[in-house]
Design brief:
The protein contains 8 helices and no strands. The relative contact order is 0.15. It is mainly alpha-helical and about 240 residues long. It has one domain (about 1-230). It has helices spanning about 1-20, 30-60, 65-90, 100-125, 130-135, 140-160, 165-190, 200-230. Helix 1 (about 1-20) runs antiparallel to helix 4, helix 3 (about 65-90) runs antiparallel to helix 7 and helix 7 (about 165-190) packs antiparallel against helix 8 (about 200-230).
Amino acid sequence: MTLLIASITPAIIFMFVTYQRDTIREPFIMLLKAFSGGVLSVILTLLVGIFLFNPIGENLKQYAVLGSFYDAYLSAGLVEECCKFLFLYWFIWKSKHFDQNYDGIVYAVFVSLGFALIENILYVFQGGMTVAIARAFTAVPAHGFFAVIMGYYFSLSKFHADDDQRKGFLIKALLFPILVHGTYNFCLMYVSHENANPLLSLLLMLLFTIVVIGFWIVGIRKIKKHIQKDKDLGLIG
């Protein structure tokens, strides 16, 4: 029970804080729908990995850079963010409740943290309390801030774009989280590889620190920007 609580608490806290910033609260059923989309995206990610990416990745594991790049940017970043984006778009885009700029961030966070909560349970039950503590301050918030970026551009596409711009913002809503997610994972995967170069590992740990600090700064700024947009448009309740 202790491990289960440690697994789910970080995701719940991040979702609650995000929800609390919303001035016109989203219906519980919509939040549950978004969260369920995140859970379903775990299943889709596993299926895509098993049948498409894992067979290729097995042949690259012996190579530190190439194997880590493949796992980080393709197997993890690309597949996970595409699956999350698919359910975000499918479940939320046409909803009448998606009517504020900040809503895109809220729903994206609930999708992403639905994914992260299930993923965290799997990792924590395998690695124990040490893993739970480490992931509470790294992996879970990371998924949250990948979602903030996705939701930020998702809302721009919905409310601030003509037909041509809409596609560009949707691409950014998917591409930027993939790149940040991939970079985050690559740093960790390379450093833990048995054939890793010590000097490059040190540089990547410095990069990892910068990335972690960066997504906190960028994420908070994007949240504030969309809240301000809603104020300017008179959408604050």
